[in-house]
Structure formats: structure tokens, C-alpha cells
Amino acid sequence: LQRFQTGDLLSRITNDIDAVQEAVTFSVVAALVDVITAVGCLVLMLKLSPFLSLIVLVLLPLLYLVTRAFRSAFRRVFKAVRERIAEVTTKLEETIAGVQVVQAFAQEPRMEREFYGVNLSNMAANLRAALIFGVFFPLVEFMGAGGNVAVYWLGGLKVVGGEITLGTLVAFSIYLSRFLEPINDLARLFNSFQAALAAAERIFSILSEEPEPPPLPAEVAPSPRGELAFDSVVFAYNGRPVLKEVTLHIPAGARVAVVGPTGAGKTTLANLAMRLYDPLEGAVYLDGRDMREIPPPNVRAGIGLVPQVPQLFHGTVADNIRMANPSMSDEEIKALFLELGLGDFLSRLPRGLETEVGEEGAKLSVGEKQLICFVRALARDPYLLILDEATASIDIHTEALIERALRRLLRGRTSLIIAHRLRTALKSDFIVVLNEGRVEAIGRHEDLIGRSPLYRRLVERQVLVA
């Protein structure tokens, strides 16, 4: 689902489902009533005058041919309408989420112009749909009016010839009017059905995504030890190579740092370790078993993640910690804060564990959110801890406290540390240097300084910056 934009997904979940719901709950019932009414009127007309009824019956295949001719045009324009609505939702979501950046760079006029542009596209798509319906519906009404004229003309001749009475013609014309009313209603509903079908296509493109297999029971898939192996792994995003023939072995319980320039593939390596993706070529092994043979929930059940951009959910601090371990008591959570040397941080929060963090943690600073993510990751008692530049938003003093606590807490756990600040990599068992998707060197800090020009440049730059 990551290939879809957030606003597009929201539009499918809300706008498109509303369109389908309206068609199912209202249009289907209305169409059923119209069909029953039309059939009833047709039966009565056949009883009154089979000859005049033939004129009406000629209209039905003509109406079908017209509807068939317009169907593809309707489907095409309504699909465009759904896409433009999704673009409006995406733009709105993106602008609201980034409102601080927009205001900081005084880009309100630009965002207003861009939003006006996507709204204009949405209006144009709706006008095209209205134009096609504006041709289709009058054509249906014109055919009905033509049927009326034919009935009055031929029926009048029959009355003059004495073949039917005037009363029969008047009654037939009344039933014909009642017959044409539901036909016109069905033409209007055809518009709604085509809109619903276009929306349903977008919904089912999401529902057709292959779901992840359910987790295996513990006796079939025991808890992993944490040994990871990447064997000639190749991976790409949308055709752009990110990892190229990566081979790497991480023993269970090892503390491994991955360093390299931006775009080298460090975070992708961590994503493959969590089986958020599968490699295009090669394989990733967990305890000697190809991860593709293990359901993703089993792989992730014992993984703790501290992301580069801290992500919290609306609720309390305790609620966010329990995302990793729902059974933890408040006392156990407090004990974990203390183990990490974060007791003072917890005591500074207005209501301690019951402090509301706000939407996406808006009531906390970035550093405070990162600390909560740290505790959440360790609350799971993970066999594999992934730290994606986890201390980037933490001050030096707090980082030192966490570093001391991690030495004890990471003992016996495999840890994969994505490091931009190289000081976080120095205490690792070994360091992996990635460059342009390839493993350039593996070793300890002292070794890499002498034999990896890239690592040496990274260290020199950070020393200069410091």
C-alpha cells in the first residue's frame, strides 16, 4: 500500500465508499421500484392494445443501444472524477500536515494557488461528466417523447378507423406516461451507478492486495534467536536500485552499526530485516531460515523499532508504550523508564504515564517523542532491536544515559543501528559501511579508519563539524 499516497487512500476509504454506499442503499432500491412499475405498466398496455404496445417495445432496444454507447464514456469520466477528488484530498492532507513548514517559508499564497489548481481540475472533470449526462438524459427523454407522438398518431388513426375506442387510447396514453417516468428515473440512476462502479474499481484495487499470511502458533514457529543473514540481496524502489548484491552475516546477540552516505540503502536494509519488503533477488535468513517461509507477523513479533522520525499515536504515554506490549502494567512501564535512566524525564511530564501526547505526539518535543519510542521498543523485550538514527533528536546528556542503559539492556539481543552520528557506532561489535547499495567494508572502527576511504571521510567530516 506504500505506493498509494495518504490522501488517495483516505479518498478511497471515505469518498469512494460513500459513492458505493449511496448506490447500494438508495439507487438499487429506487431502480427495483422503477423496474417493477415499468413492467406493470407494460403488462397493462399489452392488455389494452397489443398493436400500440409494439411501438413501446421498439423503444426498449433503442434505449439499450443508447445506454450501451454512453456506458464507456460515463465510466471514463467518472473514473477521472474519482481521481481528481483524490488529488484534492491528498493536497488538503499534505497542506494541513505541513502547515508549520508552509507558514515558516511564507508559502501560503503558493499553496493556495496549487490547491486552486487541483480544485479547478476537479471542477473540469465534473463538468465533463455533467456534459455527457446532459447529452444522454435529453436523448432518452426525446426517444420517450417520440414514442408518445407515434402512439397518439397511430392510435388516433385506429380510433378514426373504429378499431379501438377513444377511451382505450386515453387509458393507453396514461399508462405510457407512467411507463416513461421510471424509464427516465432509470436514466438518472444510470449516472449514479456509473459513478459507483468507478468508485468500486478504486476500492477493489485496494481490497485485491494480497493480505499477509496469519501468524503461525508458537510451537510451529518458536521465538527467533536473532541471527540474520543477507545473501546476495538485490532490492529496488519503483525500478530504482537501492541494494545491490548485499551479503552480510549478523550473529545472534551482535551489536551491528550500519553507516554510509544518504541514499546508501541503510534504512532499506532494516526494512528487509523486519520483512516489510522481500528482496527482488537473493534472500534474507532468520536463524538459518528464509524469511519468505516465515509469516511476517512471526518475524515482527519480537522486533523493537526506534524510527528516525518518531511516530506516536493519539492517547497517553502509557497507551503508546502498550502498542508494543499491551499486557504491561504501569509499574512495569515505570521500571523500564528507570532502567533506561529516564526517571527524571517521566517525572517532568505533567501527568506522568497518563500525559496526553496529542495527535502524532504534537504536545511533546521531537526529543521527548524519541525517548518514548525508545521505551516502547524495549517494552517488547525484542530479540532484534532496530535503531534508525534513534538518538538524532536527543541531547548529548540524555544520549549518554541511554547509551549506558543500552549496554546492559542489549546484552543477548541482536541490534541493528543505523548511524549517521558515528559516535553511536563506536561501541558496536562491528560496523558495516554501505555505499551506493553495496557493502564497501565491514570491521571495527580502528580497522575501517585504515582500509575504508569512505568511512575515513565520514569520520573526518564529523570531526570537522564537531
Concise structural overview:
This protein has 466 residues and is an alpha/beta fold.
Tally of separate helices: 14
CATH superfamily membership of the largest domain, which one?
Answer: P-loop containing nucleotide triphosphate hydrolases
Helix content: 55-70%
Number of domains: 2
User: From N to C, what is the helix and strand string?
Assistant: HHHHHEEEHEEHEHHHHEHEEEHH
From the alpha carbons, calculate the radius of gyration and give it in angstroms. 34 Å
Largest sheet: 6 strands, mixed
Which architecture of the largest domain would the CATH scheme give at its second level? 3-Layer(aba) Sandwich
Instruction: Please state the average pLDDT score.
Output: 86
Characteristics:
single chain; 466 residues; alpha/beta; ABC transporter transmembrane region fold; Rossmann fold; 2 domains; six-stranded mixed beta sheet; four-stranded antiparallel beta sheet; 10 strands; 13% strand; elongated
